[in-house]
Amino acid sequence: MDKMTVYRSALALVDGKDYVENSPTQDPLDLFYPQVLRYANARYNWSFTRAAKTLRREETSPLPNTSAFKLPADVLNIQYIRDAAGRRVNTVQILGSQRLLLTEPAGTITLVYTSDKIAADQELPDSSPEFCQAVVCLLAARIAPKIQGTAQNVAGLEAMAEQEFMKALTRDTQQEASNDQNPLPAILDRRAW
To answer: What pTM was estimated for this model as a whole?
Structure first.
């Protein structure tokens, strides 16, 4: 779902007006949308925000007997780290927001993390309509006081957003835990013999 669709949907929940550029409604939308996206992105361990990258050790490390790794730019939360043998690494130190320091020497690691790509790109995943609706409701709750001049609808909009987050989380968990497979290759294999 693109940004303009989210804007129009949020405005429809607040005052029923359509989005118009350079109007008083544009500033609150532009102000709160990135914040709402980052909050929604970091709120739960969404499968569609999970990413994994193999990182190579930097040539120099700030401390002896350690390994330093440059973090990807889209890291929001680190979920876990595995060494080259596949074991979880627990002795980690974050240096600022750009580097990771392991107290165990390692050449490469696999970093599994929550990406903030959704917040950076400002595009919502079409594969999770409940997540999209939760973001719309939460954005509407944030802009309502600025547009209407009163906060009377905020609690109701936040409750709607919470319900949609729970639906999205349930669906995301069910889809991730599902062992359903595409039946087409099996059918085609059976037809061959």
So the answer is: 0.76
